[in-house]
Amino acid sequence: MRIISGLYKGRRITAPKKLPVRPTTDMAKESLFNILNNHYYFDDITVLDLFAGTGNISYEFASRGTESITAVDENYGCIKFINETSESFDMGITTIKSDVFKYLEKTKQQHTIIFADPPYDFPVEEFAKIPALVFENHLLEENGLLIVEHSKHTDLSHLEHYSYAKSYGGNMFSFFE
């Protein structure tokens, strides 16, 4: 995986093969950030990266100037890798090792953008818990955005607060406002 834009543009990051992850493709990531670039100044926002995996999305936000980034994952290897990478690039990403659903139930911190990339094989009911918890607990700032990455075979358009979706190959991003 590589960082698409910003201070660390072009830098390649190689995650250990043993991590249970599926990083967002460069094409999908670039398209997502083109959308976000039209709505936000990256140095003025706070980001919560759920099911953070390798930290791919967190690194992209950090490279573009976002200073307040929290990455949550329940896998110790993922958290360790994000910490090591963040430290080596001096990114200052805060990591939390936790089950994402338990974290969303407990946290009171609001964010401008919440990005969630759960396993693609999640049942729709599990996907539905993400926006439900985010909106019930008021975790988005005013004009904030929840983005859920999923397979093109998963339809989230029936969920409350759903706004629209964008498809990139086999990847889809559903946007909730």
Architecture overview:
With 177 residues, the protein is an alpha/beta fold. The protein has one domain (29-176): Rossmann fold, CATH 3.40.50. 31% of the residues lie in helices and 26% in strands. The chain has five helices and seven strands; from the N terminus they run H-E-H-E-H-E-H-E-H-E-E-E. It has helices at residues 26-37, 56-63, 76-89, 100-106, 124-136, and strands at residues 46-50, 68-73, 94-97, 111-116, 140-151, 162-168, 171-176. It has a seven-stranded mixed β-sheet, sandwiched between helices. The protein is globular. The protein starts with 25 loop residues before the first helix and ends with a strand.
Residue stretches low in confidence (pLDDT < 50, at least 5 long) are none
CATH superfamily: Vaccinia Virus protein VP39
| Shape call | globular
User: How large a portion of the residues is in β-strands, by DSSP E?
Assistant: 25-35%
Number of domains: 1
User: Kindly, what is the distance between the CA atoms of the first and last residues, rounded to a whole number of angstroms?
Assistant: 29 Å
Helix content: 25-40%
Order of helices and strands: HEHEHEHEHEEE
List keywords for this structure.
single chain; 177 residues; alpha/beta; Rossmann fold; seven-stranded mixed sheet
SSE inventory with pairings:
Elements: H1 26-37, E1 46-50, H2 56-63, E2 68-73, H3 76-89, E3 94-97, H4 100-106, E4 111-116, H5 124-136, E5 140-151, E6 162-168, E7 171-176
Parallel strand pairs: 1-2, 1-4, 2-3, 4-5
Antiparallel strand pairs: 5-7, 6-7
